[in-house]
Amino acid sequence: MITYLINLKRANDRLVSAKETFNKVGIDFYLEEAVDGKDLSLPHKNYSELKYNILHGKKTNLGELGCYFSHLNVLKKFLKTKEDWALVCEDDIEFNKDMIEIINGALKSKINFDLLRLSGGSNRTKEIGLPLKLKKIYKDFFLSLNFGFKSGTGCYLINRHAAKNILKKINKMSLPIDHAMDRDWILNLRSLSISPAPVYLKEELHLKNSYIQAKSEFKFPFYKRYWIMAPYRLVNELLRLIYKLFLFTKIKIES
Predict the structure, then answer these.
(1) Does residue 144 carry a pLDDT above 90?
(2) Domain assignment of residue 174, given as a range
(3) Which bin fits 113, alpha (ψ -120 to 50), beta or left (φ > 0)?
(4) 49-69 pLDDT per residue, tens
(5) 165-183 burial by CB neighbour count: b if 16+ within 10 A, else e?
(6) What CATH number is attached to the domain comprising 129?
(7) Number of domains, the chain
(8) pTM score, two decimals?
(9) Which whole number is the average pLDDT over 37-46?
(10) How far apart are CA 117 and CA 112, in angstroms?
(11) DSSP classification of residue 147
């Protein structure tokens, strides 16, 4: 397994924080310089602005473009290695002290997956993504299947199959990276998560000092936002439910 840390060159405070986080659990990483949204301009050949506006109900945020392309760059580098798995991390996270044991437990669980979502939100008491527990893997941590949208790409484990499919199928941005990666049925991959999440977002970095600044000011007015976005969200969640029920059944048969 190889580990990558995505960090903006101008965000040295986050790099210092991340180094401390990784050192605590004994994980070495390769530093990936993030694409800075301030260096991007529109139109962009790998960004569908109209589709983003319609599906996400927001105006363009160049910080989100930078985040999207940063993750794709990491996956491209990963595929140039001979490693089977990559741990991809953003720089505002904090690991559970048993992070390595939790990852090893998931890999040894005999339940196959291509993408393992490891990070939760800033609120450590609230699970996101409606996880259904499949199997205990270490202490009180379970390998789980999400039946709802799981936001965030703070930390995830990914194999070569998933990386190839993501680069092939969503190389052009039309949604934020977490929304785009959370559609297994389009990407033809199997994603699971760990519950409770063993990786947390540091509140002082994620909420109060975000470089993406995905604030409400980017949202279209309510009367514009929902008549174009709601039909897509409805269909998307219906497809998610169907796919997850199929996947749950398949996992049960396999085990």
Answers:
(1) yes
(2) 2-254
(3) beta
(4) 999 999 998 999 999 999 999
(5) bbeeebeebbbbbbbbbbb
(6) 3.90.550
(7) 1
(8) 0.93
(9) 95
(10) 14
(11) S
